[in-house]
Description:
Layout: H1 2-20, E1 58-68, E2 71-80, E3 87-93, H2 106-114, E4 118-122, H3 136-151, E5 156-166, H4 169-179, E6 186-189, H5 196-210, H6 215-218, H7 220-225, E7 252-257, H8 267-278, E8 284-289, H9 312-324, E9 337-339, H10 360-397, E10 408-409, H11 413-444, H12 450-488, E11 500-501, H13 503-525
Parallel strand pairs: 3-4, 3-5, 5-6, 6-7, 7-8, 8-9
Antiparallel strand pairs: 1-2, 2-4, 10-11
Helix pairs in contact: 1-12, 1-13, 3-4, 5-11, 10-13, 11-12, 11-13
GO molecular function: carboxylic ester hydrolase activity
Domain BAAT/Acyl-CoA thioester hydrolase C-terminal: 145-295
Transmembrane segments: 363-390, 413-436, 448-474, 506-529
Amino acid sequence: MVLAATYIIILVAFVQLGSAMNTNWQVERYQDHIKVDTRKTAIASTKGPTTPEGTYKVRESQIQIELAPGHAIDAIVRQPVGAPGPRPACLFIHGAGTGKASEVYGDLASAMASAGITTLVPDKRMDTYSTLHRNYEAMSRDYDKSFEKLRSWPGVNPAMVGIYAESEGTWISSIMTALRHDVAYTILTSAPVYPGRQQMPMAATSYLDLIKAPSGIKKVIPKLLGMDFSSLGLEYADFASLPYLDHITQPTLVNYGTEDVSMPVEQGAREIMRRARDAGNRNVTVRYYPTNHQIRTGSRLAKDGLPLESHYTHDLEDWINGVAEGTGADQWATPMIAGSSPNQLFAAPQKTSPGLLRSLNTLLILMVGGPVLLLLALLSSCGTALAAWVRKRKLQRNPEGTRAGTTGYGSGIAARLCGLGLGSLVVMGLLVWYALRVVRHALTLEPLSSAAVAGWTGLRCLALVLPLVLASLITRAVTRISSHHQEEGTEVPPRGIHLAAGWGHWLTLVLTVIGSIMILATLAFWGLFSF
């Protein structure tokens, strides 16, 4: 009865702790779906036909652009040979996964140049860019130098220079279009639109949903992504991207791949159109392609060597050349929204406040500190055993020597302590292994097997055993202490050790209990005690 009551009290405590760690927001299913007017993505102006792809041969020029005194980057200019000027031009801005001009946008930029559009692909400045630190305002100033270079390029109409940006690069292009008024047009492809802290929960939940991950895993996403990441330097997760979209006053083309679950393909398009409309701009064209994040076919994942969607470059060129001819919002011969029917799974949340664990540091202390303390407890136990062995050997050699005081654990304490420590380490290790397996499947979009999904339930069942072992240890300890005090009240000497004797045994006991409690708190965060 005492054991059952203690177990229930401990379990309820960790259930309540897990509940307190939840956030007051969740990632919800997206409902406001966009209906396309036609599956055809072709873009045409009422002002007449535009220069088709392949009309001109393309000449490449390797140049350097000085971004700061003593710091220059390489860039590639592709221009149509023999095309009349002045002609439109396009600056390309990198997404998160690229940096070298020679390794990206070659097919896009060459196709545009063959349709009479001069293009410039610069290197991304990498000395100020890393996984943990990115300054988009500073990056926009670097791209300004490339923009000015393109405006002054021979044969280019300086009033008809625009920007093509993908993914993370669309945040940079939005800064540029907000701060300078000479950007003739902007192309936003696979734009996250929202700050990273809002976009990432939507993307992570979508990935987990596609691989059929357990709901318990998906519920961890808000708790993780609502935390303070400042200890890692990930300040760009909170980059305020939306206010810059209030200044989209130039013609804008928005492109998304319907197979891309990482971006808000419908919610983001609606946000861009709404903010442009509020700024008095209705010249926003939206196109959806049955492709991945990079508008490429053959895989939902970004892989090298995949071909662009067959109509994509033609649509880009027709739109840019149409804008160059002065096509207004009401002068397009094709629908403003067209292509494959999008189906965004989840919505980017509007708020991302943290739960009880506000800092990633606290979670890391729990996840790392618990196992570290248990490993220290193991070392302490080994050291204590070694010391006992040394004392025993000394007594064997010198039976008349001074005997050490009594050391050890009370009856039943050692077995329970060992079970608690080893059990906590095993469950924690299985949790980490399971989480890494889910992440690997999510990154490859490989569905989890039914056995892997059931593994989450098995992990939860194992986790429920740990509070029982802790309850058994506490119950036994209380019983031993109570028995010890009863014996002290009589004139009968106490029988043996009531809990632990010797500093080594006490140290092992304290480290094991504290480390195990930290692991139990970690399991509560991951929802293993949720009902």
